């Protein structure tokens, strides 16, 4: 095999015969984190931007990472020239038009934005919405990929939240708004239709989960799908009827709305969604787990799901979902 | 390197062994009330990746272990009161994990010795 060219955002280097991409980058003093050089620590993970990397360089990576062409530089002996991106790649924006505004509950807005060109996204990913003055916030996509020209979001109004307040009050149907490329790794891939799934969300964390569930059902997912949606009070819940109907139509989909404060009305479970879920499910071994909402809930539940048998490979949550409920 | 030389890392089973060990090890650590509070605010997925790097190192695999990083990485835990007793508990789970994986005692001893060598850095002394 002859030497291969590796192109990064600002360098072009040559990978010698039999040399790993990591060694080539380090030889050229390009800054890239690494530790074990053995494919174990995953600290040298980078992304191929022009097609699939050699499969053995993706050993042990989460399905969504493989799917987005991430690979371990220390394991990668290139077969051909490669373009790679190290660290975060720059985000591009496309203009969409607001076509719908509707309240889901007193504090949550269902916002619909449509685009001329179809978008490539996966339900559960998020985008950044940018106001004309440059103010940016991240929101999860709430619909599935079947509607490629359209994105929907659940925007919870937060006290003093500059963006959410503006979206609720001033943003109007017909307005243009800049929307970033879809991002994030909390989404569904139809690679194991038999796998059981647990989804736990609080507040507007239902948005990505509902999209993921729709996507899974659309692919004919056969494993059990358990959704626990929680809020402090019943007022903070929404789509209760929609989710109940979905559960009626799909016997493998189970929905449990929860309220953590006060007495729960009939049909609603009293307790924190994550605690109710973990108490109800005996083991999460081989399960896929999706978590969105309050940061502490996400962190705690990750740990508990792991102790109940789920592997970290199968637990999905984006850091942004964690940040979004505290920072606005 | 001669053709017959095998590292401890290879003898233990390389990457697959590290993966199996991280899983068992973390279940032990997070179940242990003496030490699990130190992980209350940690992102466990990132932590597991770091732990893989550490075990690769402890298994004698290639690594760029740096005492300075270890110090920096544990400084906030030292502030929370991390001391020898906690380090001992972690060592106990590490050796327990290897025993569970049926690793021969002489290899466990080697791993323990490598891990032990990080004690002063981890405890910031
Ligand atoms: S350096 Fe550890 S996986 Fe590449």
From TrEMBL, chain A:
<dbReference type="InterPro" id="IPR017938">
    <property type="entry name" value="Riboflavin_synthase-like_b-brl"/>
</dbReference>
<dbReference type="InterPro" id="IPR001041">
    <property type="entry name" value="2Fe-2S_ferredoxin-type"/>
</dbReference>
<dbReference type="InterPro" id="IPR039261">
    <property type="entry name" value="FNR_nucleotide-bd"/>
</dbReference>
<dbReference type="InterPro" id="IPR008333">
    <property type="entry name" value="Cbr1-like_FAD-bd_dom"/>
</dbReference>
<dbReference type="Pfam" id="PF00111">
    <property type="entry name" value="Fer2"/>
</dbReference>
<dbReference type="InterPro" id="IPR012675">
    <property type="entry name" value="Beta-grasp_dom_sf"/>
</dbReference>
<dbReference type="Pfam" id="PF00175">
    <property type="entry name" value="NAD_binding_1"/>
</dbReference>
<feature type="domain" description="2Fe-2S ferredoxin-type">
    <location>
        <begin position="4"/>
        <end position="90"/>
    </location>
</feature>
<dbReference type="InterPro" id="IPR001433">
    <property type="entry name" value="OxRdtase_FAD/NAD-bd"/>
</dbReference>
<dbReference type="InterPro" id="IPR017927">
    <property type="entry name" value="FAD-bd_FR_type"/>
</dbReference>
<protein>
    <submittedName>
        <fullName>2Fe-2S iron-sulfur cluster-binding protein</fullName>
    </submittedName>
</protein>
<dbReference type="InterPro" id="IPR050415">
    <property type="entry name" value="MRET"/>
</dbReference>
<dbReference type="Pfam" id="PF00970">
    <property type="entry name" value="FAD_binding_6"/>
</dbReference>
<dbReference type="InterPro" id="IPR036010">
    <property type="entry name" value="2Fe-2S_ferredoxin-like_sf"/>
</dbReference>
<feature type="domain" description="FAD-binding FR-type">
    <location>
        <begin position="91"/>
        <end position="189"/>
    </location>
</feature>
<dbReference type="InterPro" id="IPR001709">
    <property type="entry name" value="Flavoprot_Pyr_Nucl_cyt_Rdtase"/>
</dbReference>
Automatic annotation (TrEMBL), chain B:
<protein>
    <recommendedName>
        <fullName>Group 1 truncated hemoglobin</fullName>
    </recommendedName>
</protein>
<dbReference type="GO" id="GO:0020037">
    <property type="term" value="F:heme binding"/>
</dbReference>
<dbReference type="GO" id="GO:0005344">
    <property type="term" value="F:oxygen carrier activity"/>
</dbReference>
<dbReference type="InterPro" id="IPR016339">
    <property type="entry name" value="Hemoglobin_trunc_I"/>
</dbReference>
<dbReference type="GO" id="GO:0046872">
    <property type="term" value="F:metal ion binding"/>
</dbReference>
<keyword id="KW-0479">Metal-binding</keyword>
<feature type="binding site" description="proximal binding residue">
    <location>
        <position position="74"/>
    </location>
    <ligand>
        <name>heme</name>
    </ligand>
</feature>
<comment type="similarity">
    <text>Belongs to the truncated hemoglobin family. Group I subfamily.</text>
</comment>
<dbReference type="InterPro" id="IPR009050">
    <property type="entry name" value="Globin-like_sf"/>
</dbReference>
<keyword id="KW-0561">Oxygen transport</keyword>
<keyword id="KW-0408">Iron</keyword>
<dbReference type="InterPro" id="IPR001486">
    <property type="entry name" value="Hemoglobin_trunc"/>
</dbReference>
<dbReference type="GO" id="GO:0019825">
    <property type="term" value="F:oxygen binding"/>
</dbReference>
<dbReference type="Pfam" id="PF01152">
    <property type="entry name" value="Bac_globin"/>
</dbReference>
<keyword id="KW-0349">Heme</keyword>
<feature type="binding site" description="distal binding residue">
    <location>
        <position position="74"/>
    </location>
    <ligand>
        <name>heme</name>
    </ligand>
</feature>
<dbReference type="InterPro" id="IPR019795">
    <property type="entry name" value="Globin_bac-like_CS"/>
</dbReference>
<keyword id="KW-0813">Transport</keyword>
<dbReference type="InterPro" id="IPR012292">
    <property type="entry name" value="Globin/Proto"/>
</dbReference>
